Amino acid sequence: MKLRSPCEDGTKTRRIRLCQKLPRFGVGALVSLIFLAGGREAPAQENATGEYQVKAAFLYHFSQFVEWPEGTFKEANSPIIYCTLGEDPFRGALDVSLSGKTVGGRALQVQHLKQPQEIRGCQILFIGAGEQKLVPSLRTRFQGNPVLTVGESEHFVQDGGIIGFLLEENKIRFEINLEAAEHAKLKISSRLLALAKTVIGGQRGN
């Protein structure tokens, strides 16, 4: 069955809401994200590598629907830097997924960090389940800084993280703490908010 573009399907009002003012990459990114968020089976219980390939794809698309504040990047062509903290659960899948890709004309780079004090210059920080104990201190450390924190530990968004992965009926879904995003001065597209299982806090933007 052909996957129809959200710009071709649904009511006229829905098409306008989803597709107006999308950047050139936006329609394809939105279709891909809808496919992922619509119930992509997570091979977590059988193949951890497969689970993290799906999460890596989510992380790539998240960057297409988040706007960082002016002054975040030193140069017009500065890369978007993804960081992982502690043991890398992706085992190279994130590096492969982002290799050669760009978002808004910016290259994507990955840094694997062992200690919280090594974190600097990250725009997207993934915190694995094994680093759950660090979430409260990282929340304090990044208060007001434009860092998109993404995690997979239980209650990640309730503990102040911005986007949290969860497994539901062996499918990978995500939640968003909009209030935490606003404190980080990040603007999250309403198109991404619409695909989240749960959005807590704040006011939904455009």
Structure commentary:
The strands form two sheets. This protein has an eight-stranded mixed beta sheet with strand order 3-4-2-5-6-7-8-10. With 206 residues, the chain is α/β, with parallel strands linked by helices. Helix 2 packs antiparallel against helix 3. It is built from seven helices and ten strands. It has a single domain, classed as 3-Layer(aba) Sandwich (Rossmann fold).
Number of helical segments with 4 or more residues:
7
CATH architecture: 3-Layer(aba) Sandwich
Spatial arrangement of strands, main beta sheet: 3-4-2-5-6-7-8-10
Tally of structural domains: 1
| CATH class group | Alpha Beta
β-sheet strand percentage: 15-25%
> What is the terminal-to-terminal distance?
31 Å
Q: Indicate the overall shape.
A: globular
The structure class reads alpha/beta
CATH topology: Rossmann fold
Q: Spans of 5+ residues with little confidence (pLDDT < 50)?
A: 1-25
User: What is the mean pLDDT?
Assistant: 81
Mind describing the biggest β-sheet?
8 strands, mixed
Radius of gyration: 16 Å
Percent of residues in helices comes to 25-40%
Q: How many beta-strand segments?
A: 10
Helices and strands, in order, run as HHHEEHEEEHEEEHEHE
